[in-house]
Amino acid sequence: MTAVESRTVTTRTPAGSVWHTITPLLLAALAVAGTFAVHRLFVGTALGQSVDTEALRGGDFDHPRVSAVLTRTLDATRFAALAIVCVFAAIFGVVRRRLDLAVAAGFVVVSANLVTQQLKAHLGRPDLDGFPAPNSWPSGHATAAATAAFVLVLVLPRALRGTVGLAGAGYVTVVSVATVWAEWHRPSDVIAALLIVLACGSLAVFGVRLRRTGPSRPIHLPNRLVMVVLGVTAALAAATALFGMGAVALSERPLPDLVSGRFAFLTGVAGIVAAVAVSFIAWVRLTAGEPSASARTPQGESA
User: Fold this and answer.
1) 223 burial class (0-12, 13-18, 19+ CB within 10 angstroms)?
2) Which of 183, 174, 186 is nearest to 268 (CA)?
3) pLDDT per residue over 191-237, tens digit each?
4) Which residues form the Phosphatidic acid phosphatase type 2/haloperoxidase domain (predicted)?
5) Considering only CA atoms, which of 188, 167, 162 is closest in space to residue 176?
């Protein structure tokens, strides 16, 4: 007589899969902490406000006709771009049978812009630098531009996400620098907006990964090349911004008139470029390494 032993098969979730799932939560927490730090330094301290305001005033913008064109362009970008991107995300999600990405895209747009507007409406700005002005922190224009770019990266096929991310980073940089040049926003307003969008985007990716668990896939070569370009840009811009902020801070206190207003403006631009590059590195990395279609994906959905 042959004895047949019954075995109980236990399916274990790979540790790599668990880490892959919770990584967006950790990134969201870091982005929130960064947002708080930016506000504390550049809004809550006199020296931080002075450095930030000098960057704002250093653009020497005095071209009424250009200002009118810039105003119309940026306002149209803020509303029209968001509407077009939301429609595109919904349609593309249906076509690709990835409704989870369409829902995540809508969450990013709504949550990031809502948080930005609520913070701007309810946070005060103490006059610590002798330049009284209403609170402009964080930037609504930068938030709108970043959410539009993030959504496009999210809903397009993963092989294209790096390339789209690089183009999106350029677009967000132009919009963000333009708002500072036009003296609408300080650099810290823009950097905070980017961190808010990254936090909301990370939460959206966490929701997608809860539904689509599995180990991350290797990132395609074009996406890796894009991250190298963004990484080099971030390193150079961050080093320039740190050096520039030190010089501007010295100019504000112990060594008056050490640097010019234009130098302060360019320092703010370097900080914006660094923040944009870091944000898009994180975003492309999050979205380009999602699990394969066979990893606990409902039948009928595509990768």
Assistant:
1) buried
2) 186
3) 999 999 999 999 999 998 887 765 566 677 677 889 899 999 999 99
4) 77-205
5) 188
